[in-house]
Design brief:
This protein has 13 helices and 9 strands. The longest helix has 35 residues, at 249-283. The model is unreliable at 4-19 (pLDDT under 50). The strands form 2 sheets. Strands 1, 2, 3, 4, 7, 8 and 9 form a 7-stranded mixed sheet that branches. Helix 6 (120-133) runs antiparallel to helix 13. The protein has 327 residues and is of the alpha/beta class.
Length: 327
């Protein structure tokens, strides 16, 4: 009888220990879950749950519930949030060389973008760049929301249409250089302020991916989407060093394998979502300008590719060269 009691006690202790091994981790991003960021979150969450046999569970916090990207990046660095997604432009607030990922016309097409972001060598080079320049957090995957285009109350059919317009841009050296080169004035503001700024005329133009434009209802105040496709809407998936260093080698392997799945499969899914979003926008009456003459933009932007990458640093140059070499 004593033996039976002891056996039950051991089983209960083991069950309790097993239950304690299940842990939840916060995964933050500032776009709605219906965007490509939600695709990233779901791929990562599902793969990590499967690999860890249900012991590592991701709780997603979309829509800037835990703060805008620059703030969440600081929380991840401090170890107060475990995972996040940031645009490459916001990553440049921590590592200026990350601005290379948002250089204008670096990506020749959607097909080129899909291949480049899914390329293991590009991913490896970006991770090395962050490892050398950022403390407190590391990048485990790349992803994309497609190509960025401009939206306003008017059409932008060529570079001449940019003259004097106030454009909300991401606060990076790349953006601050390129939009004035097109003849526009730049305005910095958090993403959450873009809607009202377009509505009130604080800015004339904003730019982002098609699905982001749709999901955040920016078409209500800027009903003309001009497909300039001037840069990629790339993003990085981060983990706090505090969490990473607390994991066993096996757990680190699960996390990286789940992140690799994001890197490999998310880009194509994101582009598919962009196309679906265009169809939805057309159905609700948004004017989509597809015959933008990009030649003027490209002529201005092309000389800056090598110049800006060199100014950003050696990691940026390597990433730029790897991306341009992809056919």
């Amino acid at each position: 009888m004593l033996g039976a009691i002891a056996a039950v006690s051991v089983m209960m202790t083991a069950a309790s220990a097993g239950a304690q091994q299940v842990k939840h981790y916060r995964f933050a991003y500032d776009q709605p879950k219906t965007t490509g960021y939600g695709i990233v979150g779901d791929i990562f969450s599902d793969r990590l749950k499967a690999l860890s046999k249900g012991t590592m569970l991701i709780d997603q916090y979309p829509g800037a519930q835990l703060g805008q990207e620059p703030q969440v990046l600081q929380l991840v660095k401090a170890g107060d949030v475990e995972f996040c997604i940031s645009s490459s432009a916001n990553a440049a607030t921590l590592s200026p060389q990350a601005g290379v990922m948002s250089m204008h016309f670096l990506f020749r097409s959607e097909a080129h973008l899909i291949k480049a972001i899914a390329d293991p060598e590009v991913s490896k080079a970006v991770k090395a760049m962050i490892a050398d320049t950022v403390q407190g957090a590391r990048v485990i995957a790349l992803s994309t929301l497609g190509l960025r285009s401009m939206y306003a109350k008017r059409e932008i059919k060529n570079i001449a249409d940019m003259k004097g317009l106030k454009v909300r841009v991401q606060a990076t050296p790349t953006e601050d250089t390129m939009f004035p080169a097109y003849g526009a004035q730049i305005v910095h503001m958090p993403f959450g302020s873009v809607y009202t700024s377009l509505q009130t005329g604080v800015v004339d133009v904003a730019e982002n991916g098609v699905n982001v434009y749709l999901a955040n209802k920016h078409y209500e105040v800027a009903p003309v989407l001009s497909m300039t496709e001037h840069e990629a809407n790339n993003s990085l998936v981060w983990i706090s060093d505090k969490l990473w260093n607390s994991l066993t080698p096996e757990q680190q392997g699960w996390v990286q394998a789940a992140a690799d799945e994001v890197n490999k499969t998310e880009p194509a899914k994101a582009i598919e979502l962009e196309h679906q979003s265009q169809d939805q926008l057309r159905k609700i009456g948004v004017k989509i300008v597809t015959d933008v003459d990009k030649s003027g933009f490209i002529a201005v932007a092309d000389p800056y590719l090598d110049k800006l990458a060199k100014e950003l640093g050696p990691h940026a140059e390597k990433v730029k060269d790897l991306i341009r070499a992809i056919k």
